[in-house]
Amino acid sequence: MGGETFEIESAVDEIIRFLPGLIEASEDVSDIFYESVTEQSWQMFGQFVQAMDDLYRASKTIHNELVQSGDYAAIHPVFANFISQMTEQFETLNSHVDKEEYVQAGDHIRYELASLFQHLKSFLGDEQAVKERRFAANLAFLEQHFAYVYEVVRGLKPDRSRYQVTYTRNGLPNLCVLTASNQKINIYSNYDPYHEAERWVESIDDTINGKSNVLVFGFGLGYHLLQLNRKYPEHQLVIFEPDEQLLLAAMEAVDFQELFSKINIKLFIVGWNKTLRDSAFYYFARREKGETAITAIPVYDKLDIRKKLEFFEDAKTAIMLFEVSTRTRNVFGFQWLQNKLYNLAHIMNTPSIRGLQDKLTGITAVIVGAGPSLEADIKNLRKLKEHALIIAAGTSVQSLMHFNIAPHLIVSVDGSEANYDAFSHLDVNDVPFLYNPLIHNKIIENKNKLFHFLIDGDLTSRYTVGWKMDDPVFSSPPSVTGPAIQAAIYMGCKEIVFTGQDLSYPGEHIYAPGAKHVSQEKSDFMIENADMQVENVQGGMNRTNSMMRVTLREIEKLLESYPEIRFINTSQSGAKIEHTEWQSMESVLARLDKVIVPHDFMDESMANHLQPYSESRKTEITNRLFQMPGKLAEMETKLKRIEHKLGGLRELGRMKPNKCQNTMVEIEEMWEPIMNNELFTALIGVAIPIEVIEYDRNLPELAQEKNIVKKADLFCEVLGTFIKAMKDCFPQLNVIVQEAVRRVELQTQITAAEGLSR
């Protein structure tokens, strides 16, 4: 070996290159001591001793540099241990030679020193150049197969001082991570990672058995994933690796082409991007069949337990939210579609919230929920109405009116009959009313101060209203509180106070006095079945259920996305809400005492700033609606033609495979325009959501099938079943569309008559 160097990586590489020759020399030199020792023998031994001394000195130099720099913590003990053992072994060898115990000297070189050198070689692993070539190959693999992951990591540089590739006793790659607190964590056993991973898979058998999909938190170096796939080869894996640097280290250590060829992976997500994570959860929940297990590689508890727990909570919440949302849409699909189309007559003739953007700057908004704790705040809330904007979130207006408090603004979204029942007995026709097209159409029929907003997932309104770049579009948490928050922020409020937003069941009631849309029997049932708990504002625990937990979690995620807004929770007994600070309603009132908000403040703001849609946009909306009956009839005709071709497909698959193949191509060409038709997503997807999801889940199997007979059967089963569901919904769709057309025509006549009478 050459002279000393203080470039750690190059110095280690020099040792890696040097060790194979020294190991080979150990065998050659040991043999001379089993024979008569000659002058030539001593020359060979002297060269061997010099080589060992070179290795020892180089190791000492690296060790000293590591001690001084504090870097590369993973290999520091490797060299410290080697130097210590080398000193002992060399002394023992000298002792044997001095005593002319030549056979013992030969044994010591062959079995002790050679083993020591081999262990050092195993621990140091590959040269950096080899790792860099592997890294480049893995980067190219990601670019081809996982484009998003490639975009995340391609501009990053590996932090080799804190993420150090090491090697186990059996020569497999391992990884030592130096945490922010300078704790060294080996992510695998230093002896046999495969055995460790195998035992882990056995330990989660109850979690995985009976499931079809597995969400795994942590990628590591792939050992756990390989063992998981070996035992459950049919399971679809979704892998989340939260640490980009850990993945970069893995890219230097393992061959991704080989690893991924042995894993049945559906999605691979890298980094801690919450938006992407939530999108991935939604995509997976929508597309995959069967139940899903959630698990984590054990060492991630040590690496970052907070992220792991957040991942588990987010995954469970996302899956539960999708399931609840799907069931709800399946029950209310036609009702919601009817509302969105019937309400077009109002949408065209009432302004959107757009004109009020940032017009309420300096005003505090109080968003009222209907939780039991509202009653305790009512006295101060009545006074606060003169100093802040009071917004009733949905049916909480019942309780406010019960206590003779008319809010400045009502926000409502719910399209159910229950929501209509809640409003049917209320005299709020002259209260400013912000609604979404989803709302039950009867609720807004006689309201005098209407304006509206759009929701990002509403594909029906996206088509019918024709979204523009500057249209205010809000996200849709599973509670009207979410849009109320976004509306307040859109209008310029920098401080938002929550009252009655208990998001749990703090006592024996689920609503404040005045709520009439839920019977006592149903209320009692909900409380009795609230079998979960959540921390409350007092530090105790409240009863809750899975849906309420999802609602709380989604509200918290929404608040997190507005770090510039001050959120205050005044509930005296409700759930603790992350990203809020607790204050009593008395203290809020005292702080805002000098601010004056007139009782007609919202009315004046609407009159001064809101404008209805332009005549050209109204014409666009009308034209899209009036064209629907003809487009639906055209779609139905095309579906019948496809159905006719499907009728003979099974027989063709068995008797005339070539013609069958051509027919399937023709069907696909006929089917593609239907799937790409805007009416498909705007109407069909809303009316029969379960059937759409089932089709999406079955489509990959159909696309991947190569056997012509089986593919023909799948065409008939997957596409045929879906087309039947579509055709079955057309009569009801046509009735709804025709009525929507009638309502718009009637409203147009009324508006024209009012214009003439002025």
TrEMBL record:
Domain (Glycosyltransferase Maf N-terminal): residue spans on this chain = 212-264
SUPFAM superfamilies on file = S-adenosyl-L-methionine-dependent methyltransferases (SSF53335)
- Where the record annotates domain 6-hydroxymethylpterin diphosphokinase MptE-like, the positions are 339-506
Pfam families, per the entry? Maf_flag10_N, MptE-like
| Name of this chain's protein | DUF115 domain-containing protein
Organism in which the protein naturally occurs: Cohnella luojiensis
